[in-house]
């Protein structure tokens, strides 16, 4: 089937959606909008609700829940009420595959998820084999879409683009400083560190230290002492919010205060809370902040009316569900393969602006920018 090029909008509800603090204590199957008996299209939501990345998982889930409520208020997906089946993958590859198999067994063919790249990579094989559309709000691994699987999409950026920006910032701002590139042996951290190092070396700058370490308070203290002794002035680390928060705090307690440089993995309030005052001045690469886009103004206002700041990946979670609904409503279908074809063929006005998806499944939205942490929040860096 061929689709004509067009821009289609899906309406934003008048800003009414509940985000009470107990929302994340609900059972795995989350009923959104109408009662279950009336629902006839189920969308899976695979996020970490346990483990190191639970903070990012909560952001994505908040966004998805809000988008589903807003869509249901406007008629749902092709006139059918949306129900969310929320599953915890703990950012674990094996659990992610189990979640994907659960959806396959239940006949769920539309999924928002996963959050961590290793989980998305593992589960995407199952989704591709079953013709299931998977759209992630946070998995950045280039390999995820470089394989060209026709039903796999993302609304966030790619780690190779993030690494290029990190290397450029290091080269332009800290060329004469001693730089350390760190990873904690997890797949995402290791891949970002390697890509950043490769890009930095290609520019003609060699790091003073490149090392991997096992996360934990004792190892954090030993690492801080080692970096301090080596005279490191800039420390780049691609780890999660909890671990980087501990590392930054423990380093400061031991009198080591380099220029810390993190990634999209620390774009959550959890980092600022754990690092405390030592978080001030920490640099971070992250996607363009959609809270500042006029297209997201109504959604942002609705979140804030509920006392929620839609930080980090929240709006990207909203955009992921919104894209599925926009494609289904454009093509007048709930069929996964037709929705995938529509996502590839059309452009839609989402909270991210007017966007489409290329032949790999990558979103055609602006990529990464540089942020700085101050007073427990992050803003664009100057």
UniProtKB/TrEMBL annotation:
InterPro entries: Leu-bd (IPR028081), Leu_Ile_Val-bd (IPR000709), Peripla_BP_I (IPR028082). Keywords: Amino-acid transport, Signal, Transport. It comes from the Bacteria. Residues 41-376 form the Leucine-binding protein domain. PANTHER family: AMINO ACID BINDING PROTEIN, LEU/ILE/VAL-BINDING ABC TRANSPORTER SUBUNIT. Belongs to the leucine-binding protein family. This is Branched-chain amino acid transport system substrate-binding protein.
């Amino acid at each position: 089937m061929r689709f004509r090029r067009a821009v289609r909008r899906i309406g934003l509800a008048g800003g009414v959606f509940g985000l009470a603090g107990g929302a994340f204590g609900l059972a795995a199957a989350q009923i959104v909008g109408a009662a279950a008996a009336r629902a006839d299209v189920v969308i899976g939501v695979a996020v970490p609700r346990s483990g190191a990345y639970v903070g990012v998982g909560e952001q994505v889930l908040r966004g998805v829940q809000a988008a589903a409520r807003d869509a249901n208020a406007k008629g749902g997906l092709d006139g059918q009420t949306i129900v969310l089946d929320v599953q915890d993958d703990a950012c674990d590859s094996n659990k992610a595959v189990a979640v994907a198999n659960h959806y396959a067994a239940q006949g769920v063919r539309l999924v928002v998820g996963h959050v961590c790249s290793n989980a998305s990579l593992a589960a995407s094989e199952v989704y591709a084999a079953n013709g299931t559309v998977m759209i992630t709000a946070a998995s950045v691994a280039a390999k995820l879409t470089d394989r060209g699987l026709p039903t796999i999409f993302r609304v966030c950026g790619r780690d190779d683009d993030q690494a290029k920006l990190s290397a450029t910032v290091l080269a332009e701002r800290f060329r004469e400083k001693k730089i350390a590139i760190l990873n904690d042996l997890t797949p995402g951290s290791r891949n970002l560190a390697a890509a950043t190092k490769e890009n930095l070396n290609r520019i003609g700058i060699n790091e003073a230290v490149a090392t991997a370490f096992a996360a934990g308070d004792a190892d954090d203290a030993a690492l801080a002492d080692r970096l301090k002794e080596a005279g490191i002035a800039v420390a780049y680390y691609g780890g999660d919010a909890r671990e980087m928060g501990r590392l930054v705090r423990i380093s400061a307690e031991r009198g080591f205060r380099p220029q810390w440089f993190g990634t999209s993995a620390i774009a959550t309030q959890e980092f600022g809370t754990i690092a405390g005052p030592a978080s001030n001045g920490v640099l971070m690469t992250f996607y363009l902040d959609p809270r500042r886009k006029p297209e997201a103004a109504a959604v942002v206002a609705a979140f804030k009316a509920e006392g929620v700041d839609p930080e980090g990946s929240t709006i990207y979670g909203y955009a992921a569900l919104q894209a599925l609904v926009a494609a289904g409503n454009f093509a007048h279908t709930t069929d996964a393969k037709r929705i995938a074809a529509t996502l590839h063929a059309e452009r839609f006005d989402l909270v991210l602006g007017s966007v489409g998806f290329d032949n790999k499944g990558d979103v055609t939205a602006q990529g990464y920018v540089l942020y700085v942490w101050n007073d427990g929040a992050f803003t664009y860096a100057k």
